[in-house]
Amino acid sequence: MSYMDGKKLEYKGEEALKELEKLTAKADEVQENILKEILLRNGETEYLNKFMVGSKDVSEFKQCVPVITYKGIYPYIQRIASGENSSLITGHPITEMLCSSGTSAGEPKMMPSIAEDLDRRTFLYNLIMPIMNQYISGLDDGKAMFLYFVKAEMSTPCGLPARSVLTSYYKSKHFKCRARDPYNDFTSPDQAILCNDSNQSMYCQLLAGLIHRRQVLRLGAVFASAFLRAISFLERNWVNLCNDIRTGQLDRTITEPECRSAMSIILSSPDPLLADEIEAICSRRSWKGIVRHLWPRAKYIEAVVTGSMAQYIPALEYYSEGKLPLVCTMYASSECYFGVNLKPLCDPADVAFTLLPNMGYFEFIRLGENGTLLMDVDEEEEAPMDKLVDLVHVRLGCYYELVVTTFAGLYRYRVGDVLQVTGFHNRAPQFRFICRRNVVLSIDNDKTNEEDLHKSVTKAKKLLEPYNVLLVEYTSYAETSSVPGHYVIYWEIKHCTSLQVESGTPLMEAKVFQECCIAMEEELDYIYRRCRAHDKSVGPLEIRVVKPGTFERLMDMFIHQGGSINQYKTPRCIKSNAALKLLNANVKACFFSPRDPKWNP
Ligand code: AMP
């Protein structure tokens, strides 16, 4: 029987767990069948025909179809977005384009998606509760306060929806018409989740969560950054929220009719006692442990806390007094959903995802220990086709870059994630997420690589020229100790003194550095600018000017720690506390971006 049997994708509870056992026990067979089925269904596409004319053979696929990055598929995506037939890349109608948080030429990458992808995603979501139930009992005896949000939606020139994978899911019947069971009893009404105005959505979701505070057993958001943003929003808005609860009247700033009507049901009568309780908790001087005080029955916080989100673990621990497990349940992307964490209560540092062999066809490029490519292949180019390893043939402890082939029309596509094999569940490998290839800075959905950072610094430093000031060195840091986090760029500058005395050279003012901040931001990619200007999930970029000689001291420090002088390169992003301390101790002045960068939906 086919592993893509629609019935099996609908499995829930115990049945879903049994299916997981079967899939992982026969991971090799399932993978082979998935690839055969993809080739059977998509063999006639223009894309595959270019490389394996008329053949649907698995071994020919492996020999002839190139390993690509977005550049390799982009022309086809563009043609489909403009109205050409989906059969360019897939045997199914493409129903939407999913905008990933990765960007290409400054625009979000668009990933093709077909109707049945929603079944595959739902299959993975349906595994989460059965897995959790193995470790925590009684989760059916209350509600979940999950803060989910939709993002602005666009459409392609031919009218296909272009939106984020989560927006697509929340707007689908799979989510909206889900069978009600005790495990998907959310405090947030769907209308609040689906509200396009993120402030109104957040307000209503927090209000609903506070009203049901004594029933809430599970807390969470997709990413740790979003959960912390909710706490910061609560800090600014708890007085109004309490007021609504006290009077039974929804704040007038909530204007979305659907939200208003959904919230009027929850906020049916004044509850001054509840308002007093919440007020007493929120007016404490310290918000340490606030999450546990507000939601005393909560058993865990669910959010992605791996990869770049690991930087938020200390803040989450602070707000939960380290007493609530941080649960990271899944690993997924716009291209394909990948896997689940079968030990959800493990330490965030030990999280490993078991790849589900029925999600797509997975291959792996072997990497060196620190995630560097072992093969002679450009970061952005094709990798040798014959050097890929199958899912069941990856080796314990080794590092790989994930490559995926999907029903929707991606073939041997480099996802860009670096993973390490940490174990096996039956025959399916388990991976620790190491990093996104190349990304140096990330606060929320933004992912800035070294090249983008360099480009934006290059643009900004031009503004120093009229002042005869040179940028000598720079590095960066993702500052997340306050919410929202922001990019900090350390600059060491040099006044060209001989020129400075020349008459007519204007004096540097703070305004110039502020203009440099905004110049950098305007040069950063679409997703960064959206996070800044629209989502407000990233704060204004900051330039910290350091004293002359600071970067030399930084180099001395790294060399003192065993680095080689010959090979020393200024790190473009600072990860070590000691380096950060050194830089911060030498800061002469700080400047922030004075306005939001331009962003067009
Ligand atoms: P997007 O393409 O915007 O859907 O983002 C998908 C990317 O987010 C993945 O390729 C990963 O780099 C990252 N990601 C998703 N899930 C996780 C996770 N559990 N831990 C770390 N990174 C993740």
Give short descriptive properties of this protein.
GH3_C, Indole-3-acetic acid-amido synthetase GH3.9, 601 residues, binds adenosine monophosphate, globular, GH3, alpha+beta, ligase
Helix/strand layout:
Blueprint: H1 6-9, H2 13-25, H3 27-42, H4 46-51, H5 58-64, H6 70-81, E1 94-104, E2 107-114, H7 117-133, E3 143-147, E4 154-155, E5 161-163, H8 165-171, H9 173-176, H10 190-193, H11 198-211, E6 216-223, H12 224-247, H13 257-266, H14 272-282, H15 290-294, E7 300-304, H16 313-319, E8 326-327, E9 330-332, E10 337-340, E11 353-355, E12 361-367, E13 389-390, E14 399-405, E15 413-425, E16 428-436, E17 439-441, E18 448-449, H17 450-461, E19 469-479, E20 486-495, H18 497-500, H19 510-523, H20 526-535, E21 542-546, H21 550-560, H22 577-585, E22 587-592
Parallel strand pairs: 1-5, 3-6, 6-7, 7-8, 20-21
Antiparallel strand pairs: 1-2, 4-5, 9-10, 10-11, 11-16, 12-13, 12-14, 14-15, 15-16, 17-18, 19-20, 21-22
Organism: Nyssa sinensis
GO molecular function: acid-amino acid ligase activity
Protein name: Indole-3-acetic acid-amido synthetase GH3.9
